[in-house]
Automatic annotation (TrEMBL), chains A, B:
<dbReference type="InterPro" id="IPR036291">
    <property type="entry name" value="NAD(P)-bd_dom_sf"/>
</dbReference>
<feature type="domain" description="Enoyl reductase (ER)">
    <location>
        <begin position="11"/>
        <end position="342"/>
    </location>
</feature>
<keyword id="KW-0560">Oxidoreductase</keyword>
<dbReference type="InterPro" id="IPR020843">
    <property type="entry name" value="ER"/>
</dbReference>
<comment type="similarity">
    <text>Belongs to the zinc-containing alcohol dehydrogenase family.</text>
</comment>
<dbReference type="InterPro" id="IPR013154">
    <property type="entry name" value="ADH-like_N"/>
</dbReference>
<dbReference type="InterPro" id="IPR029752">
    <property type="entry name" value="D-isomer_DH_CS1"/>
</dbReference>
<keyword id="KW-0862">Zinc</keyword>
<protein>
    <submittedName>
        <fullName>NAD(P)-dependent alcohol dehydrogenase</fullName>
    </submittedName>
</protein>
<dbReference type="InterPro" id="IPR002328">
    <property type="entry name" value="ADH_Zn_CS"/>
</dbReference>
<dbReference type="Pfam" id="PF00107">
    <property type="entry name" value="ADH_zinc_N"/>
</dbReference>
<dbReference type="Pfam" id="PF08240">
    <property type="entry name" value="ADH_N"/>
</dbReference>
<keyword id="KW-0479">Metal-binding</keyword>
<dbReference type="InterPro" id="IPR011032">
    <property type="entry name" value="GroES-like_sf"/>
</dbReference>
<dbReference type="InterPro" id="IPR013149">
    <property type="entry name" value="ADH-like_C"/>
</dbReference>
<dbReference type="InterPro" id="IPR047109">
    <property type="entry name" value="CAD-like"/>
</dbReference>
Amino acid sequence: MSDISAYAAKSNNGHMEPHKITRREPGENDVQIEIEYCGVCHSDLHAVKNDWGNSEYPLVPGHEIIGSVSAVGSNVDEFSVGDSVGVGCLVDSCQSCEACDIDLEQHCLNGAVMTYNSKTDDPGGRTYGGYSKRIVVQKDFVLRIPQNLNKAGAAPLLCAGITTYSPLHQYGVKKGMTVGIIGLGGLGHMGIKLASAMGAHTVMITTSQDKAKDAKRLGADDVLISTNKDEMKKWRGKFDFLLNTIPVGHDINPYVVLLKFDSTMCLVGAIEPLESVNGAQLISGRKVVAGSLIGGLKETQEMLDFCGQHNVVSDIEKIDMSDINDAFERMQANDVRYRFVIDMETL
Amino acid sequence: MSDISAYAAKSNNGHMEPHKITRREPGENDVQIEIEYCGVCHSDLHAVKNDWGNSEYPLVPGHEIIGSVSAVGSNVDEFSVGDSVGVGCLVDSCQSCEACDIDLEQHCLNGAVMTYNSKTDDPGGRTYGGYSKRIVVQKDFVLRIPQNLNKAGAAPLLCAGITTYSPLHQYGVKKGMTVGIIGLGGLGHMGIKLASAMGAHTVMITTSQDKAKDAKRLGADDVLISTNKDEMKKWRGKFDFLLNTIPVGHDINPYVVLLKFDSTMCLVGAIEPLESVNGAQLISGRKVVAGSLIGGLKETQEMLDFCGQHNVVSDIEKIDMSDINDAFERMQANDVRYRFVIDMETL
């Protein structure tokens, strides 16, 4: 669950600087991957800046990793040198608890090992992520990338893709349903593409009129401007499912009223406290507010296969490794459509 | 959907006084019921006091109605004179919308007709409830009461029973699951009895040490005192399902942490705004906060049959009609174990 890395945040000033990290040699169940692309997730920036108070430096972010296999351990029959593979947010779990048993390794009761900034028995004692030339990962946590997908565009599928696919899939989104995607960023733009590919009537719900045109290009059938009270009233009780990608605390009540009776809004972004929730709305309509966190390995592979079938990748801006600090700044200003992906050739 | 009544609240001073209400003669699809018992629900008190601002006087409360059939319309083959029957919170719905089509008449998109204080085409233009000698109800909204159940004890099943049964059933409560019932009142005591009858390991979660003994008597396997921090910590992540019957706005976060990953807390009481909800808790554990409102007719009959099989009725205090104003006062002081039921012989 570790790697060779040349980039790390040496301090918590939010600035990435070169740093040398301990290497793990591939063991018998491991796959060694030459990293070609790595997506830049908001979590990376939070980790680099220690926003969550759990960062240990040196820290190598990156959990949207695409590359090709350069070596496999003696017990690995599943992958061969040259295979296109990916690594997402997880690199290990106990594989024997109640959560792992039902393919929800992200909820491992013994604590999943995250791709970076997570404790491990490897040299260095920590995992180091994908802003790097190479990574060594246990075979069960390596994913196959469909050949037809653009590799750079596929990188964000490993986090933004599965984070949005999992709830859409879990709540049975399909043709005949009206699905709202709240918030148009890295997660939201994947939500539109995936809900649309699943056949749902997909509605982008955003505060920004500017984003309406882009939402349609991404596959939205309709756009609902949430600051327009008349529009919001018109859509009351119309949604079979809402995917809420807003990344900060907010008032969810205006969205809950958009749900049909017996329907669900799932949060994937707001890890902060939400404002007061109207209990009567939930009770009187038998409505549900749920959360969802990435996805397990089985579902992540299913998502990648689905994206292969429907030719879905992320809209990206490819950057050089040396652009990362600028990219972080632009992300903070919400100035990216819709994901930065680092070309690791440039490292 | 109306009745003959002799008691109504003439004003919104929260006091019941005698009043004469217009009668409906049974139509061809109607069942006429001589009311024997009527449970006293908190909603009755809210309606009498116009707490929700929608009361029209004269108002006859009561939607936990048990009686026997005294007449049936010409199209009614389902019921005969002398049958033990019940009427709950609903007396009509459109029976043709998306909600009615899936037996969720309580969410009728054209507006269900509630048993009292609801608009209707009948003489008087309003429905009048069960604090009365007789009621006339469309046959599809009349329920069969299993013969083995105590009639007075069965009355609260029509609201408190279905309100708790529906979410327990909907979320698949069964043997092998650990289920918490939060709050021990009219709803909570039914929650314990029903979850226990479904075979779950049932835990009463209450602020009150006084209620612990009673909870065990009602069928709880364990009692968790929610003001005890060590106890609350011990039960973290242990519950497969939580039924939250607290009737006022409160902080749900301490309860959400008690849930296992991928599990649900369902609200049935708190129609007021809830305090800030921790989005991270929902997301990181793929947890769900849901609401549930009574149940449809099909599920209500299923609940009554289940109670018949398991001999489950409510713990009640039988009162005379003339005691109703005292009973309201005691309810407000939370001084009832666990439901008042009016003996309509005394009217």
